[in-house]
Amino acid sequence: MRTGWIIAGAFLFPAPFGFAPERQDPSGNGAGVLSDDPLKPGLVGSYWNVGKEMKEFPHEVTCDEANLVRTDGMINFDVRAGRGYYDLPWKEYFVAVWVGTLRLPKDSDYTFSLKSHDGSLLYLDGTLVIDHDGVHPFKESASKTVPMKAGDHRVRVEHFQNGRNGRCILSWRYDGVEKEVVPATAYWHRPEEGVDPDAK
Q1: Fewer CB within 10 Å of terminal CB in the chain, N or C?
Q2: pLDDT for the residue numbered 37
Q3: What is the percentage of the chain residues whose pLDDT exceeds 90?
């Protein structure tokens, strides 16, 4: 059975799909732990082995079944810094798509940025927010500020990598929080999104 991944400090390790930590009510109104949360931690990461150089994100590739589907705890990949793509069997010429739920802790203006080598795109609630596509060295996109409500929002990040030094990092900042990599506690997914083979 496939396993997901749990982030603990700087380490990432496999966890059974039954893992579902309690979460606090994001509204902050004192409702406490929500034990009936249907979501599971992490994003669904789908990977395609393209095997050739790409100039921009190849959306046609994602029409085919992914070569690998797993749960990823964060979008914080940097091969040179030792935070590579873990057990991914290809080092270059691949496509990754992460989908799931982004849980926002409060109403605020959220400023997002993508840093990647090569291209990456960020969608929130079905709308393209950051277009950082194309072949380019490791660099950060222009930041985009979006007013958003507390609670759950759909998130999708698309990324392609040509060379071996793959990197893709999604960061945010909002009222009271300085710029940081979006933490693992913000990412959730539904079992029916394709990772959990026991999902009904």
Answers
A1: C
A2: 67
A3: 60
Residue numbers of the domain that contains 86:
4-193
Classify residue 199: in a domain, yes or no: no
Instruction: Yes or no: say if 95 and 46 are a contact pair by the CB < 8 Å rule.
Output: no
Residue range 73-119, pLDDT digits in tens = 999 998 888 888 887 888 899 999 999 999 999 999 999 999 998 89
Q: In this structure, are residues 23 and 37 in contact, taking their beta carbons and an 8 Å threshold?
A: yes
Domain with residue 73: its CATH number is 2.60.120.1560
- Integer Cα distance of 174 and 10 in angstroms: 23
Rg of the chain on CA atoms, in Å: 16
> How far apart are the C-alpha atoms of 120 and 157, rounded to whole Å?
7
CA distance linking residue 20 with residue 110, whole number of Å: 26
> How big is the CA angle at 115 (ends 52 and 59), to the nearest 5 degrees?
40
Domains of the chain: total: 1
CA–CA dist 174, 145 (Å, integer): 9
Within-domain flag for 134: yes
